[in-house]
Amino acid sequence: AEHPYNHLTDTLDNGRIKFFNPQKLNDPRYDKLPLSIRVLLEAAIRKCDGLYTKKEDIQSILDWQEQQNKAEVPFSPARVLLQDFTGIPAMVDLAAMRDAVAKHGVDPSLVNPRCPTDLIVDHSLQIDYTLKNQEMELIRNKERLQFFKWCSKAFKNVNVVPPDFGAVHQVNLEYLSRVVQLNEGFIYPDSVVGTDSHTTMVNGLGILGWGVGGIESEAVMLGQPVSLTLPQVVGCKLVGSINPLSTSIDIVLGITKHLRQAGIAGKFVEFFGPGVSQLSAADRTTIANMCPEYNATVSFFPVDQVTLKHFKTISDQEKLELLESYMKAIKLFQSYEDPSEDPHYSEVIEINLSSMVSYVSGPKRPQDRVAVSSMKEDFQSCLDEKVGFKGFHISKEKQETRVPFLHCGQEYKLAHGSVVIAAVISCTNNCNPSVMLTAGLLAKKAVEAGLVVKPYIRTSLAPGSGMVTHYLNTSGVLPYFSQLGFEVIGYGCATCVGNTAPLPEAVVDAIKQGELVACGVLSGNRHFEGRLCECVRANYLASPPLVVAYAIAGTVGIDFEKEPLGVTAVGKEVYLHDIWPSREEIQQIEEDTVISSVFKDLGERMEKGNTFWNNIECPDSVLFPWDQKSTYIRKDSWFPSIENAHALLFLGDKVTTDHISPAGSIARVSAAAKYLLSKRLTPREFNSYGARRGNDAVMTRGTFASIKLQNRFIGKPGPKTLHIPSGQTLDVFEAAERYQREGINLIILAGKDYGSGNSRDWVAKGPYLLGVRAVIAESFEKLHKNQLVGMGIMPLEFLPGQNADSLELSGKERFTITLPDSLSPREQLTVKTSQGKSFVVTALFDTELDVNFFRHGGLLRYVARTLL
Ligand SMILES: *[C@@H]1O[C@H](CO)[C@@H](O)[C@H](O)[C@H]1NC(C)=O
Ligand SMILES: *[C@@H]1O[C@H](CO)[C@@H](O)[C@H](O)[C@H]1NC(C)=O
Ligand SMILES: *[C@@H]1O[C@H](CO)[C@@H](O)[C@H](O)[C@H]1NC(C)=O
């Protein structure tokens, strides 16, 4: 059938490349839409099929001004990103589908994902290596890797990134993200949904994307759009110019703080305004990665000149020109020149970048922040004040103390505020390369200006990783660090300041003699208290370049604005602003050395693959040769029998849907509360389960979280159960999670009228996500029974007159339920226990359709499979 929006087709590159041009709608509303919404619109137009994406949806998106926060719209991202945890079930499903269609005489090679899928294998390997049973894990990994390798060869549209190429988000940023996609002569914006929590980082590169759950990502892979409420878009307008002393970290943290205070949960944030062009691609991805901090869905930086420059290192000129003309043709390119072209946002937050000043923390606690500009005054007041969090209480006359001492044959003097330790550490909060580069460039310029660091100061450089040393070296700044005395002492936080060499004895003596408040300055973010030498009473955390600056100054009692950093051998005064590198300079070096070498390195390794991966043998077959012995990769059987299952719960009569999925408030001590606290919510913000129906992490934890739940494993009512293998009493969720980790199937034992009460949308999904595969009860509420079937959970009924007590079940035995090859409605099945008992139950599939749903693992999968 003809595409309903064929009339919007436009071409580029002398007609060789086609695209849908929403501007041809001639709708004045298009030019006012936030750019992120334009991305949604383009995708809806391109994917419009009258089934999943309808013409009404395009109208709703165009009418965003009116429809925001109201209309549900579909979004078909350009690609799906899976990490191997979620990748396995999705890929096993696909492979099993090939078997199934082959059985029906259809060519199995027709079964492929409909949405391009990238599968990054590193994730679980990292975790597995930390397990005790390493050898076993390696074998298991091999099975998995074989399977993944087979997937990469057998399926179209599947790209497998082998292990050891980096963490998911890094590979996504540096290898997979391409701003536009070119597919069969069609060009369209890149966009992504991923199962990795760092997925939002790519929004820093103008690529719309966010994280979704496993089931959702599988649906997208099978060609279904994500459904979302048309979001509100907060325009974050950046104005003013960046304070010269502020590093990228200062700016990222400053912007994050603003956004957190603004309360933009669940919304899109989109950056605009003249200040945006001052932020490098690395700054932007870091800000975009902070989304969870302020709870926005995405922080979107539309494509601009900075984005293009970032991709210059990996794209040839021709591709970049195509990209630019395409993005301009559909108005997805930002120039910031003409404010009248600014989109209309739901609301606008203005941030003046000049207000993001640089801070240091100290002198005693990391939470005491001092603006660098007021450091001198602040240190003075610390000397004056009585002893406390900040004060040292040094009398006025003693504040003037100067203690001379000899070091290597030369006389120096120490005073209050003298720096004796300076450590440049690239710890977690300094992983943005520009910050270490700034420090290196400052060192270079200081050396070139003729400045030195006094030799008695203990200086050190801990780059955090070989990669940091590598780019410090490539950019040519490493030798200058070393000339100032900052030698590489080792890697990682393990070698943080605690390991620096002791201070020279003469220095220690001088400090003691004058009872001086000597200072340490370091750029780490941990190990604050008591890690530096005992005789160093004031410790400051500062950005790496400021560590270099204070080391050169030799004191923290300096006002960089008014006082020179140092005096050269020929008597020339040099101020900090004389040698502080400009952002342009830093960004240039970052693009030239860091980014290009990272891209190049990753690209080359991808080409070559690694020996381990290359050596993995894998079949060339169209169908996967399942090894039924494998504990890791096993075809999801069409009739998933239940083997050696434990009972998650042992329940009595009249368990209602309110016990199964309570709608009330979230108790302060519950698995859901623990989760929400980990997301930095306060108990007052918890709200009710009912209000949080959209969040599967909360709802799974809320399943069986009723305080009225009567579990026979536990003497009193409450949302607890027994983890039978360990004998521990745990929250139901925690027990279920543990069983899942142990690969143990779960069932539920219950009495009469299981599942009575109001219908709730999580009553079947919740137990399913907890790993429950069957419920054995004396009787079921019909509606609930249907929901269980729809979710792929077996409703099994004891024979009339029988129940757990009459069968003398303790609930602690293990249960095996074998299914016949073909199942008929209301078929009787035998349950065997590990105690050697067996009893008969009726499988409550009332119709062939019920059997069908169940055979496919539930309604969702049934639909997905029919689609294919
Ligand atoms: C930003 O703040 C600086 C310093 O406070 C001020 O001089 C400047 O005018 C402000 N810029 C804008 C656009 O508000
Ligand atoms: C985070 O987002 C969720 C979903 O939009 C919202 O319910 C919650 O209140 C937000 N929390 C914070 C701290 O903003
Ligand atoms: C820095 O690079 C040079 C030249 O490529 C090399 O010889 C040297 O070993 C490198 N130093 C470090 C610390 O990596």
TrEMBL record:
The keyword Iron is assigned to this record: yes
Domain Aconitase A/isopropylmalate dehydratase small subunit swivel residues, every copy: 673-799
Cofactor: [4Fe-4S] cluster
Locations listed in the record: Cytoplasm
NCBIfam families named among the record's database cross-references: aconitase_1, PRK09277.1, PRK12881.1
GO (cellular component) term, any one: cytoplasm
Lineage per the UniProt record: Eukaryota, Metazoa, Chordata, Craniata, Vertebrata
Protein name as catalogued: Iron-responsive element-binding protein 2
